[in-house]
Specification:
The complex is a heterodimer of chains A (544) and B (294). With 544 residues, chain A is an alpha+beta fold. Chain A has 18 helices and 20 strands. In chain A, strands 1, 8, 9, 10, 11, 12, 13, 14, 15, 16, 17 and 18 form a twelve-stranded mixed sheet that branches. Chain A has a four-stranded antiparallel sheet with strand order 4-5-7-6, covered by helices on one side. A two-stranded antiparallel ribbon of chain A has the order 2-3. In chain A, a hairpin with a 5-residue loop joins strand 2 and strand 3. In chain A, 49% of the residues are buried. Chain B is an all-alpha fold and 294 residues long. In chain B, 76% of the residues lie in helices and 0% in strands. Chain B is built from ten helices and no strands. In chain B, helix 3 packs antiparallel against helix 8. Chain B is elongated, with a radius of gyration of 23 Å. The relative contact order of chain B is 0.17. The chains are: A alpha+beta (544), B mainly alpha (294). At the A-B interface, helix 1, helix 9, helix 11, helix 13 and strand 15 of A face helix 6, helix 8, helix 9 and helix 10 of B.
Chain lengths: 544, 294
């Protein structure tokens, strides 16, 4: 009766075994969470989504050779953009940061330090800045560096349309070479954070007239590009003519591209690479038990932001957001989602690392589910008419976990949450993230707090995802951003924190930690909160 | 006289087959491997039915103090990184996977049978069009087709159901059609036609019983593939949203923690494997008993 086409093959029974074995093998590889805190993903709001980086996996591990003297092999996600004007991801910035130089740099403690500029002074009530440039600087092509190169670079950055730097430097009226090694900036209004703005990730100095910056790596930086194989690796050799005596210490840096964080950690354990600065917390915990590897966890100013649109129902009733804040158990979130790495958040982007600006007394009220219910009842929500919201989140980092925890915690206050986990390209695509009512957005670490306020929270901010609009707040942000009086700036920042806790439509449950691991054959490694700005100039090879 | 003889022949064909069919089903427990498969399957069905009542915790209930625990008497399968009881989640997940895969398979078998019967019996341009269309669907790998569909119709639990139906209907239809082709010129069908019976009566009363055994085996097979498909889609994170206890999604969520919390990944993965093996053994047994029954 049965036709031959129904014949069962016993080998089909092996399919489930195959499945389970595959899953276990994949797992033993350590797993691959799409990213780590404070990485490119967190950077998304600041830059266009970096979806092009999704290229095919390579059998990189097999191609790698054994360690050689003075070569640092770094695992990084593939780079797409090489012109400093367009770079955004950690890896793109890392490459550019070693081929080129900034005018001024930021140290791991977020202080401004000299780089191409050795000295500077502000005058005119903060409207004029004069920089003295280092002597003996040459380009990789052998020509001499001069102030004209700096002026040309900043003119390019501030006039290139549609770039983040055009906004950032709109306050610059002119940049002029006022001497062979002296450059002067004139501003249209005072800017307390001008030096920080000058050390923006994109502000690497190019040679005047460069028109092929995406293929010609003619920098002044500590390393020279030896070979670039797109989607595979970029190899750098020490710049023998670097203007700082004794730097760099390393002979070579090889930046090897990995799409899969888990694969890069395997390569690190296997000794095929020396440094990784992007990994999920779970893999970091595994690495801590490995011998021959030093692990680093540093606190950052980056954070995940849970925000509710405040310009329409239901967020236009401030009770709603306050209720959600009261229903949130931050310590539990910090413990299970962050595994205790980083710091507990206080619903403002001004975190504890900003030291003087941070007000330790401005803390959100403790969790109180009953108070949350009462606030919701005032807003007209109860058991028969529960507050129902969709929580949108990118599929990266700890965000899906954060969403699952919030859903459970808020359900105790009677709030019904449906989670929508979306690929990052979908979440940020077509500015969808600016439209949705309730969303989770990662924000990368910045050395100064004004960036977050200007781009995310003032009324007309470009990325005002919560649609927050508060006159008093705008005033405080403006004061903090333009005053030359330090104490007034501190006061403004502290007032802002309490204001955001009281009526801001944002919830910041934690600040990220930046995680990194390096072979113990290297010394003087100092990671930065934005991993791409980590400086390899001082790293020393001590192995054999 | 001839007509009444023909009538009695046709009348006896269908019930005869039906009796043999259900008689054969009774032998599912005769063979040890089949009995094992059937038992495993029925056990999962039982879990799906009563799971939510016997589960000690909710599927998204988070006990922070117990997070990241290995299996204990308190938490049979341990807890995941958020402090959720893996055992409870697996129990809740059984309902989801069986409901989606089961309902999807039933619908796919129903549509596939109808289209296969009609197409095979009528032949001609209807057969050509239907089968060429199904061929084009079958040209795509099932998972790829599923992802394409989910990208088009949007992602939801209903979408997953639609996907299963669309992916498996053509296969079932081909099976049904091929059986129809082998019986449509047989005596009892010819006799029914001569008697002037309606097309639907011929299709469903005369031909369908002949197709039933093949469909039963095919249905059981499709069911095991559908379980895979539901789990695979969950693993890829499409058509399902956290904190769903979909086993595939659970495996995917547990991956980054695999070296520290292997149990959070092992138990849902083992459940998928066990259920699929059970269903396959059962399908194999059905085939053998039906073949034996003739």
């Amino acid at each position: 009766m049965l036709g031959t086409n129904f014949r069962l093959h016993n080998k089909r029974l092996f399919a489930p075994f195959f499945l389970i074995v595959t899953m276990l093998l994949v797992a033993c590889g350590g797993g691959a969470s799409p990213d780590t805190p404070a990485d490119t993903a967190s950077e998304q709001p600041a830059e266009a989504p970096d979806t092009e980086a999704q290229t095919d996996e390579k059998s990189t591990a097999e191609e790698l050779s054994a360690a050689s003297g003075g070569t640092l092999r770094v695992a990084m996600q593939p780079i797409v953009n090489t012109d400093p004007l367009n770079i955004s991801s950690d890896s793109e910035v890392l490459v550019a940061n070693h081929v080129y130089d900034y005018l001024v740099d930021i140290d791991p403690q977020s202080n401004i330090v000299p780089r191409l500029a050795t000295d500077w002074e502000a005058s005119d009530g903060g409207l004029t800045y004069k920089f003295t440039l280092a002597e003996g600087v040459t380009w990789h092509d052998g020509s001499d560096f001069s102030a004209a190169d700096v002026a040309w670079t900043f003119d390019r950055l501030r006039t290139a349309e549609g770039t983040p730097t055009a906004d950032l430097y709109s306050n610059i009226e002119s940049v002029e070479a006022t001497g062979d090694l002296e450059v002067t900036f004139s501003l249209s209004e005072p800017n307390s954070f001008f030096l920080y703005d000058l050390s923006d990730n994109h502000a690497l100095i190019l040679k005047e007239g460069t028109n092929d910056a995406d293929s010609n790596f003619n920098g002044t930086g500590p390393f020279v590009v030896d070979q670039y194989s797109p989607e595979d690796r970029i190899e750098l050799v020490a710049n023998d003519n670097y203007f700082i005596e004794g730097q760099p210490s390393l002979e070579r840096v090889e930046i090897i591209f990995f799409n899969d964080d888990a694969a890069s950690i395997d390569a690190l354990i296997g000794g095929q690479i020396d440094l990784a600065m992007r990994m999920p917390t779970a893999l970091f915990v595994t690495l801590q038990q490995e011998s021959g590897i030093n692990t680093y966890s540093i606190p950052t100013n980056g954070f995940d932001l849970v925000r509710l649109r405040s310009d329409r129902e239901p967020g236009n009733n401030p009770n709603v957001m306050q209720a959600l804040k009261l229903a949130t158990d931050r310590e539990a979130i910090f413990k299970v989602v962050q595994q205790g790495f980083g710091a507990i958040g206080n619903d403002t982007p001004i975190g504890p690392l900003y030291e003087a600006y941070f007000d330790p007394n401005a803390a959100p009220p403790a969790r109180d589910v009953e108070a949350a219910k009462a606030l919701l009842a005032e807003a007209g929500y109860d058991e028969s008419n529960p507050l129902t919201l969709t929580l949108h989140t990118p599929d990266t980092g700890g965000r899906p976990d954060l969403a699952a925890v919030l859903k459970e915690q808020w359900s105790e206050a009677g709030v019904e949450i449906e989670i929508s986990v979306e690929p990052e390209s979908v979440y940020y695509g077509d500015d969808g993230w600016l439209e949705v009512d309730l969303g989770i957005t990662g924000w990368g670490s910045r050395p100064y707090p004004q960036f977050y306020l200007d781009t995310m929270l003032v009324s007309n901010a470009k990325w005002n995802e919560s649609h927050f609009s508060d006159e008093e707040f705008d005033q405080l942000v403006n004061t903090a951003g333009t005053t030359v009086d330090d104490s007034q700036r501190v006061k403004s920042y502290r007032e802002m924190q309490q204001l955001l806790i009281d009526r801001g439509p944002i919830l910041i449950p934690y600040f990220f930690a930046q995680l990194g691991a390096i072979s113990d054959q290297f010394e003087n490694f100092e990671m930065k909160a934005f991993a791409g700005r980590t400086d390899f100039r001082n790293i020393q090879f001590t192995g054999s | 006289m001839a007509a009444s003889e023909a009538r009695s022949t046709t009348k006896s064909t269908a019930p005869g087959l039906g009796r043999r069919f259900f008689g054969a089903m009774r032998h599912l427990f005769d063979r040890p491997t089949t009995a094992l498969g059937t038992t495993v399957f029925l056990l999962f069905v039982l879990v799906a039915l009563i799971g939510p009542w016997i589960a000690p915790y909710g599927f998204n209930e988070q006990i922070y103090a117990d997070a990241r625990q290995a299996p204990t008497l308190e938490h049979f399968f341990g807890t995941d990184n958020l402090g959720r009881d893996v055992f409870s989640r697996v129990l809740f997940g059984a309902r989801e996977v069986l409901a989606q895969a089961g309902l999807g398979t039933i619908l796919a078998v129903a549509f596939g049978t109808f289209l296969g019967l009609l197409s095979g019996y009528r032949g001609g341009w209807l057969d050509e069009i239907t089968m060429r269309f199904f061929d084009s669907l079958l040209a795509l790998p099932a998972l790829l087709l599923a992802l394409l569909l989910l990208g088009t119709v949007g992602q939801s639990q209903h979408a997953v159901l639609i996907v299963i139906v669309v992916v498996y209907t053509p296969i079932v239809a081909r099976v049904a059609r091929s059986v129809v082709l082998s019986v449509r010129n047989k005596g009892f069908v010819e006799a029914a036609k001569l008697q002037g019976e309606s097309q639907s009566r011929i299709l469903f009363r005369e031909i369908l019983p002949s197709v039933m055994p093949a469909l039963t085996v095919e249905g059981a097979l499709r069911f095991s593939y559908a379980i895979f498909l539901v789990a695979s889609l969950g693993f890829l994170g499409v058509g399902v949203q956290p904190p769903s206890p979909n086993w595939g999604l659970m495996v995917s969520e547990a991956r980054p923690h695999a070296s520290q919390l292997p149990w959070a990944m092992f138990f849902p993965a083992a459940s998928i494997a066990l259920l699929v093996i059970g269903v396959n053994l059962m399908a194999d047994g059905i085939k053998r008993t039906l073949q034996a029954a003739g």
